[in-house]
Write a structure and sequence with these properties.
- Helix 1 packs parallel to helix 2 (about 55-70) and helix 3 (about 85-95) packs across helix 4 (about 110-120).
- The protein has helices at about 25-35, 55-70, 85-95, 110-120, 155-160, and strands spanning about 1-10, 50-55, 75-80, 105-110, 135-140, 150-155.
- The protein is globular and about 45 Å long.
- The protein has a 6-stranded mixed sheet, sandwiched between helices.
- The protein has a single domain, classed as 3-Layer(aba) Sandwich (Rossmann fold).
- By secondary structure, the chain is α/β, with parallel strands linked by helices.
Length: about 160
């Protein structure tokens, strides 16, 4: 059994003109990342791997979640190829995960996340919002063979406010 949790990065700031990958979280984004990360511990497996896009907004979101979940920050794996908006690229990265790990929490970007969730999950989601959390399970032994799975839990910031 493989367990994948997808978290869309929190709301980013557009206050200063920066390259897309360098945009930090907005004040609202910081708040919702803390809100969601503080509400998910009962939905997490005992052990898991943290993967994050290298984009500043995704990295900051992963750091907030790590701090609130007491996950060692130095153990977060920042992956260049997770800086994608393409579901096929995201699928490729997920399917390349080492099979020694059964549980992955991934911090990334939309449309890749929403499209992945709708292709591989069993619950349609119009749009995974910023700071959105989607937990999925796949009844396989190898990440490379994931197909349609089960959407176990969806948490969006609006539900928690």
């Amino acid at each position: 059994m493989k367990h994948l949790i997808l978290v869309r990065h929190a709301k980013s700031s557009w206050e200063t003109p920066l390259k897309d990958r360098d945009r930090p979280l907005s004040k609202n984004g910081l708040q919702t990342a803390h809100l969601v990360s503080s509400a998910i511990s009962k939905y997490l497996p005992k052990t898991y791997l943290f993967w994050s896009s290298v984009a500043e907004r995704a990295s900051q979101t992963a750091l907030i979640f790590a701090q609130n979940l007491s996950y060692p920050i130095e153990s977060i794996i920042f992956k260049e190829d997770l800086y994608t908006f393409d579901e096929q690229q995201l699928t490729h990265v997920i399917k390349s995960c080492d099979n020694d790990f059964d549980n992955v929490i991934l911090f990334g970007h939309n449309g890749a996340i929403t499209n992945f969730v709708n292709k591989f999950g069993d619950v349609f989601i119009e749009n995974v919002p910023t700071s959105g959390f989607v937990s999925m399970q796949f009844d396989v032994k190898d990440w490379s063979s994931i197909k349609k799975g089960k959407t176990v839990k969806i948490i969006i910031p609006k539900q928690l406010k």
